[in-house]
Amino acid sequence: MHYGRGDAVVRAVxxxxxxxxxxxxTAILGPNGAGKTTTIETCEGFRRPQSGTVRVLGLDxxxxxxALRPRVGVMLQSGGAWLGVRAGEMLRHMASLHATxxxxxxxxxxxxxxxxVRTPYRRLSGGQKQRLSLAMAIIGRPELVFLDExxxxxxxxxxxxxxxxxxxxxxxxxxxxxxxxxxDEAQELSDHVHIIDAGxxxxxxxxxxxxxxxxxxxxxxxxxxxxxxxSLAAELPPGATVTEPEPGLYVLTTEVDPSVxxxxxGWCAAHGVLIDSVLVEHQTLEDRFLELTGRDLR
Length: 298
Hints:
Blueprint: E1 2-3, E2 10-11, E3 25-29, H1 36-44, H2 65-68, E4 72-75, H3 87-96, H4 104-110, H5 126-138, E5 144-148, H6 156-171, E6 175-179, H7 183-189, E7 192-197, E8 200-205, H8 207-213, E9 218-222, H9 229-234, E10 241-246, E11 249-253, H10 258-270, E12 277-281, H11 285-293
């Protein structure tokens, strides 16, 4: 998928190849402009692919749109509701379009929408619009739901409620594909993660697999300044490094296990070093994401 002409052509999606397993939660991550939303909108049938093949539940999302609509739920970044309609009216309208929708009132209560069901859409806050959009996406009991940044702008309570709902959907066999800028959200919710940059998939795997591939774990140790770092590093496994980014703070990068911690504390005891604090830090999905995509602003 590309935009523009001649030298100004921008490839928003460039040979993306991915598969989503039924009954799982799959996160698509990437910096701004990486191609996430274009990929999702192509799968939803809102964009026609310029090359390649897209199949959703075995069907073409453009040619078979009528057959797919009852089976797929879509949460749009733009909301998808009319400006003047009340939130509750919009949700009841969406329910009326499906043969066996979820009951409206329990869903309203579940997502904490009671306080704004009679409020026109144009007057809703960003977080309220997000909750309504999520309710609209799942009201029809879809087999597959696309969630584009489902917790953007939500307060912590609403965010946690959304996580619980995604977990519940998975437990009922619903397949979820989501985009998010919250790495902790992807790490918490996802069975599988695809990281996209410049329109290409640059890494795929479970959150644990992606984290394990990147940088080693880290020990942060505080003690007196100017310890013999070379001597300490010699006690650690091959390839370990010891740095002192500020006086008295030592960062040890190595594969951390109980035997390594024993070596560190043993070295300190042998050299008369009193440890003020020691902290083992494990790499997160955000760390891995930044390693792959860089730290520059997009």
